[in-house]
Design a protein that fits this description.
The chain is of the alpha+beta class. It has 4 domains: about 110 residues, PAS domain (Beta-Lactamase); about 130 residues, 2-Layer Sandwich (Beta-Lactamase), CATH 3.30.450.20; about 160 residues, Alpha-Beta Plaits (2-Layer Sandwich); about 230 residues, TIM Barrel. The strands form 5 sheets. The chain has an 8-stranded mixed β-barrel, surrounded by 5 helices. A 5-stranded antiparallel sheet has the order 2-1-5-4-3. Helix 11 packs antiparallel against helix 12 and helix 17 runs parallel beside helix 19. It is globular and about 115 Å long. One of its GO terms (biological process) is regulation of DNA-templated transcription.
């Protein structure tokens, strides 16, 4: 006796493929859960309907004929026997399908059970295999005879073909490579650069890429290679593969590193030497002039060091110098540079000296670190140091800046040693002014002197408003309206930015509550200082609740460089906000060192292209144009909102729109105003 397929309903529901039964009239009698998922229908919408609703319109007539012929001569047909059709989902999308058929019953009671499987991926894999086979035939001979490693990789970084030389170089067999991707053999510190380089090749911003990087062998050994990447196109001219040539240059790299180290390092302390200080200072001064900032040079000399050498000998003196060098290193912040200038003299370079207190605190930390007593050959020594400080001007040279710092050092020694002295006394006046700003900020918070301005964010396609960015201004009672550049650094350094940020968010939420029809969300800037505060997340939630504002109408903007310094609690706070529906945008994208990892590790919903990239856009091809287009490709690929900020001209807007950027912001579209624009 032939059983009714409905007797096996449990098995049908457990089947991995879509299972459905039809009678001779082509009416669907039953379906399983996989059928609902595959075709995006509820089973109640399918049962009782003609089978042809699941067949593409152009194929329905032929399908009716095939169905009639099958019922005339029914037989079981397994998948993979050539019966491949096309399916049609509820939304009209079509997909290739492999189908098996099993008849149950006979005569007018016959029911045919069809098992349907989406074979899109299999077909794509087969097409890829055919393409790769053709490519392999072209390059197999050359790759096999090459003495350097060669590989063909997909645009996603997966290895497709590797030669024997690459297997020997990295210690893996060919099967291992075909199951892994390029970044699996790249040193972790190089992965981001490799991903960006690949994106640039695919975006055609560069035709060929030559890179020196580190790879990790199967035995864990790191090697240096010179890698050349070339984009290969298919028959239609579309990017298809990347050919990689890998040459081992470890010995060459190590020899060069040894020579470089000897040329620019002090053998006693391991610090950089005088030559490095002068070369680096020249580079840093040029960067400072270009960016409109100043450097600080701290010239350090150990007090009475000659006494140590004369009384205990040069070996003891060398021991003191090595210890002092370690203590100075421990007292520095990331970005500060240090070198031994000679004898008992050291030089520190502070990259941004706009805030005098930063420089003064550096000098205090170094003095305190040096001044801890130590035992040398049975003798207790309490080393002290005098420090001369000079800041650069637009005309400074390495020699003049160090000369000024040395002059200040001499003055510090004249004043009694064990102290620091500025070459330019104007910096003391700046320190006093900074303290004044701090006091006035505290008063401003109490008096609610901060005002929010709104700059529109527009769709580049037609310039209609899609949102705003909230920008804080200080309505100073005597100095007038002050921009963030005149108080924000002090606010962040003192932690007052948290209270200011709370007032800004409160004003923004009040405005959103008052204007429920305001187009798009409002972006609010948040500093790393705020994110690090344990109560910040609760404060944001409370403010939204107080004003009854939908979280989706708020976007939190955090600069890329600030994100890199976030503690785990701050990252958790951002994740919690995203779960509420608040957007998370990375501001000034492209200025940090881990742009891609930021997008990977945080719940980011949008990216704002740094205005410096926009400022450098040109009518013709340029690096800035290529970078902007590459970032847009990354943003689109990760399905993020992309906003180009700092647009000031029609040309910039046109270039960005043509590159595919969807949103823009800048004075070209509208200046910040106290009232948001709606069109």
């Amino acid at each position: 006796m032939v059983r009714n397929p409905l007797d096996f309903q449990g098995l049908l529901e457990a089947a991995p493929d879509a299972m459905l039964g039809t009678d001779q009239a082509g009416v669907i009698r039953f379906v399983n859960r996989q059928t609902e998922l595959l075709f995006d229908y509820d089973r109640t919408d399918l049962i009782g309907q003609p089978l042809e609703i699941l067949v593409p319109e152009l194929s329905r007539k032929g399908h009716l004929a095939h169905r009639a012929a099958y019922f005339a001569n029914p037989e079981a047909r397994a998948m993979g026997t050539g019966l491949q059709l096309a399916g049609r989902r509820r939304d009209g999308t079509e997909f290739p399908a492999d189908v098996s058929l099993s008849p149950f019953g006979s005569g007018g009671d016959m029911v045919v059970v069809a098992a349907v499987r989406d074979v899109t991926e299999q077909r794509q894999a087969a097409e890829t295999a055919r393409n790769l086979a053709a490519a392999e035939d072209l390059v197999r001979t050359a790759m096999g005879s090459a003495s350097i490693g060669i590989a063909l990789a997909g645009l996603d970084g997966s290895f497709r073909v590797v030669n024997r030389a690459l297997c020997d170089l990295l210690g893996y067999d060919g099967a291992w490579f075909l199951a892994h991707r390029l970044h699996d053999v790249v040193h972790p510190d190089e992965v981001e650069e490799v991903l960006l380089d690949r994106a640039q090749i695919i975006a055609e911003s560069i035709d060929k890429s030559t890179t020196k990087l580190r790879l990790v062998r199967a035995d864990g050994v790191t090697i240096w290679v010179r890698r050349v990447g070339v984009l290969i196109r298919d028959g239609d001219g579309q990017p298809n593969l990347i050919m990689l040539q890998v040459e081992d240059i470890t010995a060459e790299h190590e020899a060069q590193e040894a020579l470089t180290y000897q040329a620019f390092h002090d053998s006693l302390t391991g610090l950089h030497n005088r030559a490095w200080i002068l070369d680096t200072l020249a580079v840093d001064l040029r960067a400072a002039k270009r960016e409109g900032r100043s450097l600080a040079a701290l010239f350090i000399d150990l007090d009475n060091f000659k006494v140590v050498n004369d009384s205990l000998g040069h070996v003891a003196g060398d021991e003191v110098l090595a210890t002092v060098a370690e203590r100075i290193v421990a007292a520095l912040y990331p970005g500060d540079r240090l070198g031994r200038f000679g004898g008992s003299e050291f030089v520190i370079l502070v990259q941004d000296a706009h805030d005098v207190l930063v420089v003064e605190r550096c000098a205090d930390r170094v003095s305190a670190s040096i001044g801890v007593d130590l035992q040398v050959r049975g003798h207790r020594i309490v080393p002290t140091a005098s420090i001369g400080i000079a800041t650069s001007t637009s005309t400074s040279t390495p020699e003049s800046l160090l000369r000024d710092a040395d002059s200040a050092l001499s003055q510090a020694k004249t004043n009694g040693r064990e102290r620091w002295h500025f070459f330019d006394e104007t910096m003391h006046a700046q320190a006093l002014a900074r303290l004044t700003v701090e006091d006035q900020l505290r008063e401003a918070i109490t008096a609610s002197q901060f005002v929010v301005f709104y700059q529109p964010i527009v769709a580049l396609a037609d310039a209609h408003v899609v949102g705003h960015e909230a920008l804080v201004r200080w309505a100073h009672p005597t100095r007038g309206l002050l921009s963030p550049g005149e108080f924000l650094n002090v606010a962040e350094d003192t932690g007052l930015i948290t209270a200011i940020g709370a007032q800004v968010l409160d004003q923004v939420c009040a405005l959103l509550a008052e204007h429920p029809d305001l187009p798009g969300p409002i972006s609010v800037n948040v500093s790393a200082v705020q994110l690090a505060m344990p109560y910040w997340l609760t404060s944001v939630r409370d403010t939204l609740a107080t004003h009854r504002v939908d979280p989706a109408r708020i976007v939190i903007e955090v600069t890329e460089t600030a994100v890199l310094s976030l503690v785990d609690s701050a990252r958790t706070a951002l994740t919690s906000l995203r779960e509420l529906g608040i957007g998370i945008h990375i501001d000034d994208f492209g200025t940090g060192y881990s742009s891609i990892s930021v997008l990977r590790d945080l719940p980011v919903t949008g990216v704002k292209l740094d205005l410096r990239f926009v400022h450098d856009l040109t009518a013709g091809n340029s690096q800035a144009n290529a970078l902007a287009e590459g970032v847009n490709g990354l943003v689109k690929g990760m399905h993020l909102t992309g906003i180009a900020e700092g647009i000031e001209t029609q040309m910039q807007a046109d270039i960005l729109r043509d590159q595919g950027w969807e949103h823009g912001q800048g004075y070209y579209f509208g200046k910040p105003t106290t009232t948001p624009v709606t069109h």
